Every structure is written in structure tokens, then in C-alpha cells.
Amino acid sequence: MQRALSISRQNFPEWYQAVVRDADMAEPSPVRGCMIIKPWGWGIWERMQALLDARIKATGHENAYFPLFIPLSFIAKEAEHVQGFAKEMALVTHHRLKEIDGKLVPDPEAKLEEPLIVRPTSETIIGDSFSRWIRSHRDLPVLINQWANVVRWEMRTRLFLRTSEFLWQEGHTAHANSEEAVEETMRMLEQYRAFAEDDVAMPVIAGEKPANERFPGAVATYSIEAMMQDGKALQAGTSHYLGTHFSEAQNIRFQNDSGELQYCHTTSWGMSTRMIGGVIMTHGDDDGLRLPPAIAPRQIVIVPMLRDKPEDAQVLEYGHALVKELSGKFALDEKIRVLLDTKHIKSSEKRWNWVRRGAPIIVEIGPRDVANGQVTFMRRDMLRDGDKVKSQAMARDEFVAKMPALLEEMQKSLHAEARTRMDSNIRSDIKTFSDLEAYFGAGSDDDAGEFKGWVRAGWAKPEGAALDAVDARLKALKLTLRNVPADGMKAGGTCIFGGGDAKEDILIARAY
Amino acid sequence: MQRALSISRQNFPEWYQAVVRDADMAEPSPVRGCMIIKPWGWGIWERMQALLDARIKATGHENAYFPLFIPLSFIAKEAEHVQGFAKEMALVTHHRLKEIDGKLVPDPEAKLEEPLIVRPTSETIIGDSFSRWIRSHRDLPVLINQWANVVRWEMRTRLFLRTSEFLWQEGHTAHANSEEAVEETMRMLEQYRAFAEDDVAMPVIAGEKPANERFPGAVATYSIEAMMQDGKALQAGTSHYLGTHFSEAQNIRFQNDSGELQYCHTTSWGMSTRMIGGVIMTHGDDDGLRLPPAIAPRQIVIVPMLRDKPEDAQVLEYGHALVKELSGKFALDEKIRVLLDTKHIKSSEKRWNWVRRGAPIIVEIGPRDVANGQVTFMRRDMLRDGDKVKSQAMARDEFVAKMPALLEEMQKSLHAEARTRMDSNIRSDIKTFSDLEAYFGAGSDDDAGEFKGWVRAGWAKPEGAALDAVDARLKALKLTLRNVPADGMKAGGTCIFGGGDAKEDILIARAY
């Protein structure tokens, strides 16, 4: 049987690399840990940006842009924050090159007085602006978002999932009190949940991270966690309530109604190019990527079957007319995105390229289609009937008329498929640590492991050293605490870690 | 007379700073030479991105993303290129901080083997990809664009116009021969011209830069030059034909029809946040910014006159209904962008804020407007009648119906105003260097100078040392060569620099 990929999901890590490569999404660069995002991968990011940006704006935030560099002294102001990031920072120390002994080197005379950090996140540099912008309670809330590149030096990288440079949006807000700041934190968590589910068709569990997984400097960190097809969890977005930690470190204060100076309560929240890795591992199959129509750069790709013969002109004309007609229609509240692929390569090669890239609808038109006024197409979400590729012919007018509804149906169907997988693979019947150990298998290689999914269990919410001990026991099983689902206690009972009565549920999983 | 700004264009440099500050566009950051782009400034940039991006895609280019960092050895490959940039590079030398003697410093054990350069431009890192992507003539052309931040260390900075970090797009293409590469270079120059004139309402002269103003490593550099209201020129976009310089340095080759390996001909072209400075200096007046509707983040801003009285509710309701109605209409091929400004500040303050920010239409609605079913509004492009602010009342339905045409008219009228200024201030009657000297005044302070505009004169197109000599003579007058207008020789005659017969016209001007 011919597959569009040479590797199946049986070997999940290699399959992932194959999709990234063969769907032309990204490739490693000669710069350690930095990736090159190729046009198809970038197109998916542009779609995600457009959809999430609309949500960010609709909830009252404004975009702005802050410097790439952060003075070392800024980042050192918040103690936990600098501890959390100090080990993975790119440091700029010079601003000029000089030829010395025939070799170009940093010019010793152009050494910076204070090193600059390439932003790993922008709480401190944006907080500095907040401290100047905010004077009175009338200036609050301040609701800012930034789309930017950030750098966190990584030794072991994986395209999209963990790279030294990545792209993201980071929201930063300041409020008059904790209630409003917590409300904002939860509002943006909900936006991430809705974005993941409705736009990316990726079901997630939203909840609070345990203390040991908090953002450095946060009072509370919330996440959305998605289940990949190998059963591992992917943290796909985080929202942090920062309390007054950063305000105190940076003197972000406002005069309240009674004229007293008070510290602001701040939040931050981010979603990154990591999400693209999540799309691959949620929707991909053994033929490559499958894209939910909402984030597909091209929703319908038309491959003309050209044979260097006179009838080619008619086929192309038919294709162009089809593009024009489809482009005028709307699906998922936007104009349908159609491409006629006129590259000078074989049409069968084109077809497989678009299968691997996951274009939702792939149309092939040849002289016979033109003659019959029909369209032959494949649905990428249901590519095969058994082993065979399934394509269907439809009268052209019917095809055009049906596309809006079909694209919307595909969006829902990909979501439903992933939802079923997640929902049916969160076990809440594992009640003791030894059962947990027996289920996941102590110390098995997480990459080669069979599909296990997640465990949802009650826990006593240990703190400090007790939490560290739990973390260490899980680590030995290559497991991590994901989050405390926001939908309340369901597994309950006694603490799976032996800490007495459960106070809340927590998700336990292997993770990216 | 009350003005929205405290400084008039009489003092142009200070006026510029005042507009940037008082229109809430940008501010200096604590990081040397880096700017903070505030929401209104960023909104203008988003508009420019959307409009230029559409042009870039419509001409067949695809967006992608390449690493922020460039290995030092890459940049050193093209000799002129590294010479041109070596003096203004931010160098990353370490990847970790360490506490030594109670102080956080770059960890000596985390020193990079090879320093990384924060990209000042991406020819070399993208060229490296091209050398891997391109094998055969069937792979050509490769047409890539990237939206990114870049860093060129600057000692004397001015917001938007010259900053160490700035944002831009950079196009990079590879072709089979010089004809196609030159054609691409000119195509993108034309896109910049059309973008500047039609979208930004900024008239420009497109032409080739003289050899001494070429991009480091280019065979030919073309630019669009715009005239600011102080008469100076602003280079607002450049397009470079790079020949095989970068291909040879980076081994970007393809197999031609006959199976022989040949070097690709490459191009690059860029437009940056500098353009925002150009918008200010082209369209601003003594009340602040005036925005062409196509690039205005909000084209119509409605200020409700609220008085903390019961009738406020009706005014707000009227405002919301107006927003809804206007938002459903199209102008300049896009939905009209409307804002109801509900901030808790005085409505007169709001009005002046929007005047300074240059919102094209500013509407004020109070109880009387509601009662009469009318709208009172100001056109920002014609704010005053003599010294008085001019506002007009119009029946609500008529107002809504007229907006699309009015916004389009304002776009054209701002362009026409700037076009007249430019066209009537390019002198071509100055024929000798001594006349040039007399006109501009030797060594006068360029910032305090009176309006002079540009001179278009014939020149003999000197090269090498002769060109350097011309450059030095002009420099003494604080003048520069801008470009050779693409519309042919009009001034002609003999060379203004005394080099015999003129071969072509060249623009001479003070410049940013």
C-alpha cells in the first residue's frame, strides 16, 4: 500500500519529524536550536495569528511592541523570575566587530557596560513601561499584547516543540486589584481554550498548574493541556496571575480613589509556535498532516492534470474559473482560500504533496472532468477507504455549492475525532501510586512506549517538600503533573500519593 | 489660538518628536536605541503590513521565517556585505548567566565557540537555505518574504527614523538569470511605489541609487524617495539586484536545461517601520498627525459627550448603533474601522487626543444630536477654517451613506496635497555646483534650515574616486545623492559637478 509518508505513527517521534519535513513545514537551521519555518508552516502560523489576534482584540486588548533586548539589571529585579530563566539566556555583550590578526572578532572596545539579554519573555521590560504609564486608577486596566520572537537557549531541541528561538504572543495586563487580575487571567485561559477547540480543533483540558510548574514569579499559572496521539500531554497555552510580585519589583503603582498609592496586580499569558507541533500530533495520520479548515492556509487545492497537450489550456481555464467561483464564497466566516497549483511538476507528485501537507480538499481536474462539467476530489480527513485512496466525482455546481458546509463539517469532525480520543483516554480508575506505576511501567522509555493516555486522580495538594517528593516519584516514571482540571473534583477519593483525603483532581501524564 | 500640539512645524525636529509622543505612537525605551511602539503606532504598522503583505503575496511571494541569529562566519562570506555591517552589529557571545561574587554575569563556561550576530539583514542566513533548496532550474524562481525584527547598532537614534532595533519585511529571491532577477528587482520597486502612493498617500520618486549608496554586496540598488515637509528626502524602501555576489559566496547553484551548474541571480528588498516616520512628516500638521484612511487603525472615532446624567445612556446607545451601521459598510475595499471611545476621561480631552492621533473622521455626539437624528463631525484633513476648528452637522442617514466616498476622497486628497508639494519643490533650473551651493547655503545647519526641497540635475555619472569626490563636495553642504529618477533624463545638459555632458538626471537633497 502506498502511503504519502515513509514512516507511520507506530514510530511516533520519527513520524513527527517526517511530517514536519515532508509537509514542508520547517527545517533545522545552521544556528543551534533555531528553526526555519517554511512557507506552509508559516502559513499555518499566520492563520493561527489571525484567529487568536481577533480574540485578543475582541476582549479589549491592544497590540504594541517592546524591545528585543532587556538590560540584565531588569531581569534580576524579580528573584524567582531570574532564577527561572538565568540558565537559558542569549547574552549580547558587544556591538561591533573588528578585524584582529586577520580574523573578525567582537571589538574589545565595543563591549557593553551592561550585557543585554535577548528577551526570553517580556514581563520586566513591559513592566518598566507600565511603571511609567500608570498613574491613577483611571489608567487601569492596561491591556497589552505583543507578537514577537523570544529566545530561551535549549540544548535538546525539536522543531516547533522546543527551539531556542520561537514565536509567540505575550499578553501583559495591569489591574487595580486581585479580583480583576484573576478575572483577566481566567478570561484569557478561556480564550486559549476556545481558540484551541474551535479554531485549531484541538480539545484541551483547562486548569491550574501545581505550584512546582508555575511560571517563575507567578502566584498562579493556568494552562490548557492537549492529548497527542501518542498519549502524551502538550501544554498549549498558559495564563499567569502574577499578583504584585512584578509590580513590587518594578514599582508599578497607581493612586486609588482615596489618593493612596497601591501596587497593581498584573497578569501575563502566552501561546506560541509550539501549537503547530500540537496540530501535527493531534490531527496527523500515516499520510502526513491533516489541517482543520480554519487554520489551513489553503482550504481547497486544485491540481490540474496537465499533459503538455492542447487540452491543457481548457483544463487550466476550468481550474481558474473554479478558483474564482470558490474564492467568492464564505466558510467559517471567511472567504474560502483556494489555490490552483500550476507548478511544473507531475500532477501525481502534486497530489501527494498536498496530501502530506494536509490541505482539507484536494481536487484533481482532467479533460474528462472538463468535458463532464464535474470535479473529482478527496477529503483529506477521510482519505482512504481501507487501504485505497477515496476520491469522488461531483457535478461542478453542486461541488461549489457544498463546499462551505463541507469545510465546516470537516472542522467539526476533526475536533470530534480528537475529542473522543482524549475523553476516552483519561483514566480515573487508578487510585494508588502502585497502580499508577504498574500502569505506566517504571522507567520505560517514554518515546517508545505504547499509548497510555492520562490519569486523573484525587490528590491532597501537597506543598513545599511534600510536593517535591511527589514530583520526584513521578519523574522516576517519566511522569509529570499537568493541571488541576477547572471542572471540579470528579475522581476524588483519597490522595493517589498517599497524602490522605483528596482535595482536588489532578492530571498525571507523560508530556512534551 | 488653541492647537492640539504645543510645537509647530516651524521647529520641525521638535515638532516631529511632539507628534510621536503626543499622538501616542512610540517612546524611547531604557534599552539604548530601541523603541517602544505604542498601540496607535503599532496599529498603523499593522495596517501597513496588511496592505504591503497583500501586494507581496499577489506578486507570487510566500512568507517564511528564518533565525534571528546569524553565525559570524556566514556574514563574513560576502566581503562588501560584512564591511558594510561590521560596525553596527549586536553580538551574542554567551548563553547563560552565573552568579559570581554575588553578581549576575555571563557564565564564562557558557561562552559560544562562535559569536552569533543578531540579524541586521538576512541575505546570508536565507542564502544558506537557498543553497540547500535549489537544485534544478525547475526549483526557480524562489520567492520568499519575511516579516521580522532586525538590529543595527546606532549611536544617534530618532524614533521610527533610525533605531537600533526596527521591524521590516525583507524579500529574498533567486532566479535563473540576470534578466529575471532584474525584472523582479524592478517589480518590487514598483510595488513599493504603488504601496507608498496608493496606500500611504505618500508620493515618491523611484530610481536607482548611485554606486556609493548601494546596499553592501549589491550590483544595483533602487529606492523610492519621499519629500518630507521640511524639504528633506526620506528613503522609504529599497530593492536590490545582487547579481551572483551572494550566490558565489554561498554556493547557490542550479542545474540548467543542459545539466550544467550555474549560479543563481538573487535579489532582496525591504520596507521598514521607518515608513511610519515618513507618514508623520508627509501628512502631519500643527495639530498633530493626519492619517490617510487606508492606514488608519480607526477611520472614524465617535466621542460621546457624556455628562454623568441619565441621557448618557441614550447617547451611548446612539453611538453603538452608529458603530454597528458604519462597520457594515466598505471603504477602500475593506470594512470601515470605527471606534466608540468610552474611556473615562473628558470628551474634550478625547477630541484633542484623536485630533493629535490623526483619526480621519472625528464624530462628537451629544443629546442634541440624538434628538435631531444627526451627527456632528470633523474632517481631520481639513480641521480648521482659518484658526477655528470646523465641524459640521449632517443627518445621520446621510452621514452613514456618505462615509465610504468621503474616506476615499480623503485618501486621494492627502495624496494630492503631498504630490503638489513634492512636484513643485524639485528644482531643475540649478545647473552648476556654485549655484547649488548658493541655493542650499554652505554648511548651514540642516535641522534649522528653511524649506529648500530637492534639486534634479544632469550629471556625468562619475565612478570610483570621481564619485567619492562628488560625495565629499556634497557632504560639505550636508547634501546627498538620492537616486536617478526612473522617468528618464529631463534636466540634462552638462554635469552639475563639472564632469562634462550629463548622462542622466540625479536627485540631490538633504536627507534623513
CATH architecture of the largest domain in chain A: 2-Layer Sandwich
The SS-based structural class of chain A is alpha+beta
| Helix proportion range of chain A | 25-40%
Number of strands of chain A: 30
Domain count of chain A = 3
Biggest protein-protein contact in the assembly: A-B, 60 and 60 residues
Number of helices of chain A: 14
Mean pLDDT of chain A: 95
Tell me the name of the CATH class of the largest domain in chain A. Alpha Beta
Kindly report the CATH topology of the largest domain in chain A. BirA Bifunctional Protein, domain 2
Separation of termini of chain A?
32 Å
Oligomer: homodimer
Shape of chain A: globular
Q: Could you state the CATH homologous superfamily of the largest domain in chain A?
A: Bira Bifunctional Protein, Domain 2
**Rg over CA atoms of chain A:** 26 Å
Proportion of β residues of chain A?
25-35%
Stretches with pLDDT under 50, minimum 5 residues of chain A: none
Major beta sheet summary of chain A: 8 strands, mixed
